[in-house]
Amino acid sequence: MAEVTLRKINKKFDANHVVKDVDLEIRDKEFMVFVGPSGCGKTTTLRMIAGLEAITSGEIRIGSTVVNEVPPMDRDIAMVFQNYALYPHMSVASNLAFGLKMRKFEKSEIAQRINRAAAILGIENLLERKPRQLSGGQRQRVALGRAIVRDPAVFLFDEPLSNLDAKLRVQMRVELKKLHERLAVTSVYVTHDQVEAMTLGDRVVVMKDGLVQQVGEPLELYNQPANRFVAGFIGSPAMNFADVTLNDAGGRAVAEAPGLKIVLPGELAARARAKMNGADTKATLGIRPEDIHIASAADSSDHCLEAEVEVVEQLGSEILLDTRVGQALVVASIDPNVRVRTHDKLKLALNPERLHLFDPQTEMAI
Amino acid sequence: MIEGALWRKWVFYNIPLILFVFVLLFPFYWMIITTFRPDGELYRPWNAANYMPFWTNNPTIEHIQYLFEETNFGRWMMNTMFIATVSTLISLFCGVLAGYALARLNFPYAGSLGTVIFITYLVPQTLLFIPLAQIIRNFELGDTPWSLILTYPTFLIPFCTWLMMGYFKAIPKELEECARIDGASRWKAMVYIIIPVAVPGILSSGIIAFTLSWNEFIYALVFLSSPDQKTVPVGVTSELIRGDVFFWGPLMAGALLGSIPVAIVYSFFVEHYVSGLTGSVKG
Amino acid sequence: MAVTAVSGMGTRSTPRLRRLEDERWLAMALLFPTALLLGLFIAYPFIEGVLLALTNQRVGIPGKWVGLDNFIKVWNDSIFRTSVWNTFWYTGVTTVFKLALGLWLAMLLNRHFKGKAIVRAFILLPFIIPTVLSTFAWKWMFDPTFSVINWSLFHLGIITQRINWLGDPDLAMASIITVNIWRGVPFFAISLLAGLQTISPELNEAAAIDGGGPANATHLFATYAYQIGIGTGLLSEGAAISLAMFPFLFLIVVVQLLYIRRVETR
Predict the structure, then answer these.
(1) pLDDT at C18
(2) Which end of chain B is more exposed for a tag (fewer CB within 10 A), N or C?
(3) Residues 6+ apart with CB under 8 A from C241
C-alpha cells in the first residue's frame, strides 16, 4: 500500500514560513495534483515528500512508515524534474539503468526493465543516443522512463510539462493520463497550470501562500469553490467578481450594486439571509463567464444585467465579451455566431443556479 | 551588411587584428630565426650594411647541438616535464575535491573557507621562499624534484579550486538530486555524475596548472642547485649566461625548445580551454 | 504520537544525525588533502615569514625580537619607497593597458572570420611560454648593439641614433612595461572574450535596432562591462597579482568580492 500522508507539515527558510500546517491524505494509486501560483509552497511540499528538503515540523508517511529522517534514496520514490535532469554524459539506456545499477540489480533484470519501460513510452529506438541528441518531448519521455524502471511506490512530478511548447504539452498530458491508468502508481504532481490540474488529477490541492485552500475532485473545486481564491483560480476564463450589498427587501434576498440587481435563488438566498442576520451586508458576487448568455424574452429580469460591450474576442468556439456593468467588468462567454460590436449595449442573463457569494473579508464562500 | 562598408571592415577590424597578431607573435619568429642563424650573422651590429634581420641564408643547427651537448638541456626537459606533470596531478586531485566540497556541500564556514583558500593564492612567492627554503631543508628535500612538486601545489591548488568551484556551481542542482533519488550516495553522485560532466573544466584546470608549473622560476631557482636537477627556465638562465656574456644562439634555442611542450599540451585542448572558462552545462 | 519504526528499509540508529554528519564528514575528507598541503607550505611559512620580519635574525646568527624595527627601517629607506612607488606605478599602468588592449582584442576576435580558431589559439602564446624565456627573446630584441627594433626604426627613417632601450632609466621602465603588457594582453583578451560570448545575442540585436551613435555606444559598453565582470569574475585580477603587495591586494580583492557578490545577487 502506498498512501502518502502529510500531517501538520511546516517549512521555514530562516524567518520565511513557506509551508503552513499542511494536512493531507493521498490514497493508494491516486493521482494527486498540487496547483497554485508561484511561491505558494507546492514545490517545497513536493520536495519534502521526496526528502530533498528537511521538514521543519510535522510528519510524512509513505505507506505506514514515517519517512521524516529517511534519505531520498530509501523512500522508494521516483521523481521527474521540470528540466528532466538527464545525465548528459550517458546514453539513454545508461540513464535508465543508473538507478538500478546503484541499487545493485542483476544485469538481466535491468535489461528487462529498460525494455519494458522503453516499450511503454515508445523510445526503443533512442536507447543508444545521448540526451543532447533528443528533442524536448523525447527527453521528457526518457525522464519518465527513468522513473518507471524503478517501479517505485510513489511517482513525484515537478512541473514536468512546463518546458514543452503548447501543442506538445497537450499531447503529453494525454499520455500521462494513459500512463497513470496503465501503471496505477500513487502520483503526486505539481503544476501552476490549472488546466493540467483539472484534466490529470483524481483530486486536486489548491495552495496559496503556503496554505491549503481546498482539496477535492476537480468538479467539486469548479462547482463549489471554498473561497474566492479557488473560485478565481480554477476555470478559464476566470470567474467574474462584483462587490455587492445584500439586502432583504420585500421577502426576496437581493444582491445590489450600481447597474446591477440580482435576485438570489432559494438555497443561496437562505444562506445569504443567515449571513445578513437582519442587516444589509457587503459581499462579493461571483459568476462564471460560461454561465452568462445574451438575454432573451424567456429570461426573467430578476437575473439580468445591463452591459456595454468594451472588447469582442472571437475564439471560433465561443466569443468572449468584455463588458462593463455599472462599475464592474464582466466577461461573458457567448455563442460564436452572434453579431456583436464594441459599444453595443446589451442585456445579459445569468444562470441563477450558478451564482456564488463570498464574504468580503474572509473570502470564504457563503 | 552593405557592401560599401568593406573599407570600414578593413580599417576597424582586420588591420588592427593583423597588427595585434603581428606584435604578439613577432618575438617567437625572432626566437626561431635566431635559433637557426649562425653566430657570424647573429653578432652583426644593427647599423652594419649587410644586416638582414628577417631571414637567413645559412640556417644551422649548431646552437641546438650546443644546447644538447654542452649543457644538460635534455635532462632539464625531463625534470621539468616530470615536475609539471606530477604537481598538476596533485593539484587537480586536491582542487577538484575541494572545489566540489565548497560548491556543493553545506557545512559550517564553507564560505569563509573558500575565501581563505583564495587568499592563499595571493600570498606572493617572494614572501614565502625564505621560510619555505628552511622547511625544505628540514625535510631534506633540497635539490630534488620533490621540493618543487610539493610546493607548486601551493599556488596551483587555489587556482584549480577556484576554477572548479565555478564550474561545479554551473552544473544544475537537479542532476545531483536526481542521482540521489536514484540511489546514489553523495560520494557516488560526485564520482559517477558530477565529475564526468565536469571533465571539460578539469581539462582546462589541468592545462593551466601544467603551464603555470612549467613556467615557474623563483622556487625552482631557490630550491635547486645542481645542474642536472634544474628545470628548463632555471637551467637556461644559469648555464647559458656566463657573467656578462649571453650566448644568444643557444639561449634562443633553449627558449624555443623549452616552450614547445607547453605549446603542444595547450594545442590539444584549445577548445576545452575556452569553453572551460565559460563553463556551462545544458541539457 | 508514536513514531513507527522504519521497517524493511534498513535500520538506522540516529538517522537525522547521520545525514548531517555524512555531509560534514565528506566535506572534511574532501578538503583534507588541500588543507594539509596549503597549511604546511603556505600557512606555516607565512607565519614564519611574518615572525622573521619581526626579529633581527641574520644568516647563522639567531635573532631577537625587535618588534616593528625592521618595518620602520625599511619604510625610511628611500630606495624602498622608490620601489614601492615604482611597483604601484608599474602595476597600475600595465593593468590598465592590459585591460584596454585586451578588451579591444576580445572585441576584434568576437566575430566570424576565416581562421578564427587558429588565431585564437596562437594568440595565447605570449602567455603560455615561460616568462623567463620570452623575456630573453625581448631582451635580445632590445639589445643596444643588435636590436632588430632599432634596425627597423632606422630603416623606416624614424631614428638616426640607436635607442638604448634598457640603459636609459625612463626607457627601461617603458620597455619592461611593454613586455609585461605584451605577455598579459592575450590572457585578458581570452578571458574577456569568454565574457563577451556569454552576452546574449538579443542584447546585441537590441542595440543594433536602437541604432548607433555615441550615446548608444556608451550604453552598450556599460552593458558589456557588466557582463564581462560576471563572465570573468576575479580571473583578470588574479593575473595582475604577481607583483603587488599583499595587504593592498587584500583590500582590493575584498572590495571586488563585495562588488561581484552585489552584482550577482541583483
Answers:
(1) 52
(2) N
(3) B121, B122, B124, C249
